[in-house]
Amino acid sequence: MKHRFWSDSTAGLTPYTPGEQPRDRTYCKLNTNECPYPPSPAVSDALLALNSADLRLYPDPDATALTAALAAEKGLGTDQVLVCGGSDEALAFAFMAFYAQGDTVCFADITYGFYAVYARLFGLHIHEIPLREDFTLSAADYMDAPGGIFIANPNAPTGIALARERIEELLCANPDRLVVVDEAYIDYAPVASCVPLIAKYDNLLVVQTFSKSRALAGMRLGAAFANASLIDAMNRIKYSFNPYNIDRVSQAVGCAALQDPLYLQEVTAKVIATRERVAAQLGGLGCRVLPSATNFLFVAHPKWTGHTFCAKLKEQGILVRYFDQPRIQSFVRVSIGTDLEMDQFLREVEAMM
Ligand SMILES: *Cc1c(COP(=O)(O)O)cnc(C)c1O
């Protein structure tokens, strides 16, 4: 309820709605795209090696070791990397650093909901660019865009990926627009990351996260990659807002996770194998399944609306996500869980046919 101390802009916000985390019973949780497997054992070693006495000290505001490790992994300079508290914070810093009230930003009609939330928070105009009929994004629709561009690649909640060559076309066509490419799901995709294009395009900013493939959603770690001048701008925002944004535990855990690329490959391959199997089985049951390059499937049941499908699964103890917006009301988004969890999901879907 609005209190008299609320500002008008606070009252006017439409905050992001996270996936539900009900506690009334134990659910099979396929609604927030978390990794079904634990993080690398190197992460638990790093946690055990932490000394609680050190928590009296502020963390390194530059997250020097983690920044260097990420830069080394990507073949970038440390001045081309900014570690953030989840990629949501990286996106927030980008909105604050590169746009002023009244500016226009462009993104797909069906994409990650936080872009619109931030645009409204910062008083920006939103120019929606509809995905094509088959839910693919066409770079041709982004030639000479009327404002800064935000693209999730692969996209969410559709799961569809765009080839790097298409993004490159869009970068070339908009040399005076910033293009933010959100690669939250890139590790699951058969397409190449845009990070190597940073050297070539000064209008490119890539955002990645530790929340999905690295199984660290509970830690809040993400990063932005761009030329040094863009990263410098984002640092100006960070140091004007929350200089100690990455706590000591997260810095240690992030470094440990990066030391174990084999584990990342293994776990990602398992998720992809499960995804392909489940997609084929859902297709066999008569569901429409969009081609996924992520750790989730966007699925339409032949009989039920997304809303009903979601509610019926919840009754059976399975949480998936439904988005109440035009064009996608027949779909639910199903995160890829373990094979056991997905078998339970498939049994329930079959029972609903
Ligand atoms: C999950 C997700 C994010 C945010 O992840 P963080 O946990 O804040 O790092 C960003 N973009 C997309 C498209 C996502 O799906």
SSE layout and pairing:
Blueprint: H1 8-11, E1 28-29, H2 41-49, H3 64-74, E2 81-84, H4 86-98, E3 104-108, H5 114-121, E4 125-129, E5 148-152, H6 164-173, E6 179-182, E7 204-209, E8 222-226, H7 228-238, H8 248-258, H9 261-284, E9 288-289, E10 296-300, H10 306-315, E11 318-319, E12 331-335, H11 339-351
Parallel strand pairs: 1-11, 3-4, 3-5, 5-6, 6-7
Antiparallel strand pairs: 2-8, 7-8, 9-10, 10-12
The structure holds pyridoxal-5'-phosphate (PLP).
Describe this structure in words.
The chain has 353 residues and is an alpha/beta fold. 35% of the residues lie in helices and 14% in strands. The protein has 11 helices and 12 strands. It has helices spanning 8-11, 41-49, 64-74, 86-98, 114-121, 164-173, 228-238, 248-258, 261-284, 306-315, 339-351; strands spanning 28-29, 81-84, 104-108, 125-129, 148-152, 179-182, 204-209, 222-226, 288-289, 296-300, 318-319, 331-335. The protein has a 7-stranded mixed sheet with strand order 2-8-7-6-5-3-4, sandwiched between helices. Helix 5 (114-121) links the parallel strand 3 (104-108) and strand 4 (125-129). Helix 2 runs antiparallel to helix 8 and helix 3 runs parallel beside helix 8 (248-258). 43% of the residues are buried. Pyridoxal-5'-phosphate (PLP) binds at residues 33, 86-88, 112, 152, 156, 182, 184, 209, 211, 217, 222.
**Overall mean pLDDT:** 97
Given the structure, what is the number of helices?
A: 11
The biggest beta sheet, please? 7 strands, mixed
Secondary-structure element order, as H and E?
Answer: HEHHEHEHEEHEEEHHHEEHEEH
| Uncertain ranges | none
